[in-house]
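for the record, two folds in this file. i put them one after another cuz i was lazy. first one right below, seq on top, structure tokens after. the second one comes after a little note so u can tell where it starts
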Amino acid sequence: MLAGLILVTSRPGPEAPDSSIAATSENLTPQLQFGRLTFNVESPPPTDAPFSIDTVLHRLPGAIVFIGTGFPANDRMPDAATASSPDDVVFAVVLKGGARASQHGREEVIEQDHAVLMTTRDAGSHTSSRETQHLIVQIDRAVLAIKVPNLGAWLMRPLFLETQTLRLLMAHCQEAIDLDESAPTHLQHHVVADLCSLIAFLINGWENRSEASPPSSTRMLRLHAIKAAIEASLGNHDLSAETLAAAQKISPDYVRKLFREHGLSLSEYLLERRLAFAHGLLLNPLRADERIGKIADEAGFNDLSYFNRTFRRRYATSPSDLRRSAT
């Protein structure tokens, strides 16, 4: 067992499905694999204090969710971006203890119940102690920037999260962690979209605290019910605030408000979910011979040109090119 404080340095590494710790055969230096980064763990001379960690990490399409405690670390990010480095943002929340973050020419002390937004492609560091407990969400920067247009202004600005807000974020992260690897791709995209929308809401809500408040648990349950109904009927061309409201016995305006509270309109959410569903169908080898028009229709698009245009804008490739790249 390792003992004492450890120093963690990072370098680009291969993709890994989960976190793992192993010692190399040559120098017995433990390594922690975190997504595309490999952390070398250097231990000082042994002390009487044992070293232990309690971490959970789960990767989803476009996101990594990490909850950990008992991991004293000095994580130094790469000095320069590499071609293989993901252009992501890291939303790091201190659940217990404290941490110190440095990036973009700023250094901040991150206290308990506070969060900081950092990037993966810029040099920086994040230092924590043995008592620090973190909740970390790593997500695609471009996707979050759609919901937070002034995202750059929020980098390295500590945000206080109220108890109710933290519980909501923890619930969403636990939902992501509980997803089995065999879960349908469209469901994984759905959970990531929820996480991204919630983080955007937290940031935008901080900017307009007099106008925004975290959604109550009742509203969140209602929103989850509506989203479940959407997932079950993405192919319905008539899906709208009116049809969803009728099924939930609420008003269409209330449906639209629930989505606006998460920084995304209902129409934007429907488009995102339909595109993600179509994306999964196009990569399914069992559907390789089906017409793209049929897949678009099954995902709820009744206009093929509109589907092709929005798909290319969302994924930077055409549906036909995506299918060819998967073969």
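(here's the note) second protein begins now
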Amino acid sequence: MLKGIRAELNGDILQALCNMGHGDYLVISDMNFPSDSIARQTRLGTLLTMENIPAPQAIDAILSVLPLDTPIQPSVGRMEVIGKPDEIPPIQQEVQAIVDRAEGKPSPMYPVERMAFYEIAKKAYCVIATGELRFYGCFLLTKGVIPAEEAVR
């Protein structure tokens, strides 16, 4: 355990988050996503897990240390519901509230069609599989920057 670091964030996840660069994608996946096969195609090349927690809790923990790339564009993508691209299921509503709280302002997620989501995920830095059982609990987070004046030394 470390002071100020949430227990959900293990060493492998912290290392990956630290190694990501500005603009890199991170995939948070539910239990139905082909996490392992997609993870093998990412930059990291191996699957990371937070398997005993739901996606919203995982994202909340990750956003406690990861800056989002929000000044210019939306930085959190959500997998679209097949045939209903404007539908936002409860899991995605929960994550939206977490993102808004982390950013201190409304930061709308952008929708990504399912097959397009898989293709983007293959180009991500890494995949973190969660224990999320609900459908459409898959998200893309884009890493931002921390200005020098806000960096902790």
